[in-house]
DNA sequence: AAACAAATCAACCGCCAACAT
DNA sequence: GATGTTGGCGGTTGATTTGTT
């Protein structure tokens, strides 16, 4: 049996909202709230709209303090960084940017930022070939940008929040409606982290004195101190500038695997001189954990799977050379397939 | 000025998880 | 536990706007 429609499609208006509809919806919600039921709401106020449509309209446009357009450089950086870190979790990314909606950010990413980054990426590749010095300058610049973001975002956006990076998620900026979800308690945060893919040890249900349980096994970005985390910034930047073009071009989110890197892995990574070396070590320890990450560490993984020595000299700087003909022939095709398929293609190409 | 292409963005669709019955 | 309902999310579409020839 199929899913029941949320509304009577035949009797529901579609398309752009009129000012009258907006006014009706806005004034009702401001006076009465949503009543906890979006589906019933349009009937209550005499709107021939689907409840979902009302919700979307309210959240994306009618809600107070919504900003449209005019993304700042800083917001760009935040979006890029978070996308690299967590993928297309637009709602989570939006939670870091007060006044921005997931839809807005998603559109902005798809229409502008992705291209902007892609352009940068291409420039980076060119620069890397011409001179490694220039690359260092570029990275330094990006590091500075990120450092600046970290230091200024708290004052510009959420003066009472944790830095947006790398602790994810941070508290969302003052939701307007008290019906909206808040993450200001341990349980909510825990729930959100679980949803994100973070894992908790069995005894995590113990009271935690109002602080996050340290047994939380959350991604690469689980440490609290910026000082500790700084190398990871560099690593992310390295990954960004040296990963195949496909990384930035795909609309898929980054592999879930990113979220299952636990504390042991983290220490492995941090114990190495470089992220690359750490990742190699991690792959040696537990290769299946990297399934789905092939596009980021293709040569290492391939080396491992083909029996080559782990810890050998994988040239991350030249990872682009591993974008094999079948894959490199055009990233249009790539977009249609999954990253896993891409990786499988690469493996097939290399053979056993 | 007209025609066309590209970019933008509001809105829809369908899936999934959580919750209620 | 099974089934139905709702909210939320990410991906996609298509109308509109903007830029180019």
UniProtKB/TrEMBL annotation:
HTH myb-type domain: residues covered: 9-62, 63-117
Phylogenetic lineage: Eukaryota, Viridiplantae, Streptophyta, Embryophyta, Tracheophyta
UniProt keyword terms in alphabetical order: DNA-binding, Nucleus, Repeat, Transcription, Transcription regulation
Name under which the protein is recorded: Transcription factor RAX3-like
Keyword Repeat tagged: yes
Cross-referenced Pfam families: Myb_DNA-binding
GO molecular-function terms, A-Z: DNA binding
Name of the coding gene: LOC113714808
Residue span(s) of domain Myb-like: 9-62, 63-113
CDD domains, alphabetized: SANT
Database matches in SMART domains: SANT
SUPFAM superfamilies: Homeodomain-like
Annotated PROSITE patterns: HTH_MYB, MYB_LIKE
Localization annotation: Nucleus
GO cellular component: nucleus
């Amino acid at each position: 049996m199929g899913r029941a429609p949320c509304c009577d499609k035949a009797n529901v208006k579609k398309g752009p909202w009129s000012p009258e509809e907006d006014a009706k919806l806005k004034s009702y919600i401001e006076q009465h709230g949503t009543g906890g039921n979006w589906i019933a709401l349009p009937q209550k106020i005499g709107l021939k709209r689907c409840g979902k449509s009302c919700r979307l309209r309210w959240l994306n446009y009618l809600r107070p303090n919504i900003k449209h357009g005019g993304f700042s450089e800083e917001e760009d950086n935040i979006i890029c960084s978070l996308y690299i870190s967590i993928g297309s979790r637009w709602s989570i990314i939006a939670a870091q940017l007060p006044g921005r909606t997931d839809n807005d950010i998603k559109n902005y990413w798809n229409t502008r930022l992705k291209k902007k980054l892609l352009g940068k990426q291409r420039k980076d590749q060119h620069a890397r070939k011409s001179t490694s010095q220039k690359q260092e300058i570029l990275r330094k610049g990006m590091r500075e940008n990120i450092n600046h973001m970290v230091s200024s975002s708290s004052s510009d956006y959420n003066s009472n929040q944790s830095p947006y990076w790398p602790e994810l998620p941070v508290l969302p900026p003052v939701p307007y409606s008290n019906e909206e979800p808040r993450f200001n308690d341990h349980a909510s945060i825990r729930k959100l982290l679980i949803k994100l893919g973070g894992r908790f040890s069995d005894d995590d249900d113990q009271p935690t004195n109002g602080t996050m349980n340290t047994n939380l096994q959350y991604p690469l970005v689980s440490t609290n101190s910026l000082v500790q985390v700084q190398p990871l910034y560099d690593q992310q930047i390295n990954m960004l500038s040296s990963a195949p073009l496909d990384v930035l071009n795909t609309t898929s989110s980054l592999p879930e695997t990113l979220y299952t890197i636990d504390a042991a892995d983290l220490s492995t990574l941090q114990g190495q001189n470089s992220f690359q070396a750490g990742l190699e070590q991690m792959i040696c320890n537990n290769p299946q954990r990297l399934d789905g990450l092939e596009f980021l560490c293709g040569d290492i993984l391939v080396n491992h799977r083909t029996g080559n020595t782990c810890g050998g000299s994988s040239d991350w700087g030249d990872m682009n050379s591993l974008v094999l003909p079948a894959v490199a022939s055009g990233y249009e095709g790539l977009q249609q397939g999954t990253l896993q398929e891409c990786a499988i293609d690469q493996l097939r190409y290399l053979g056993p």
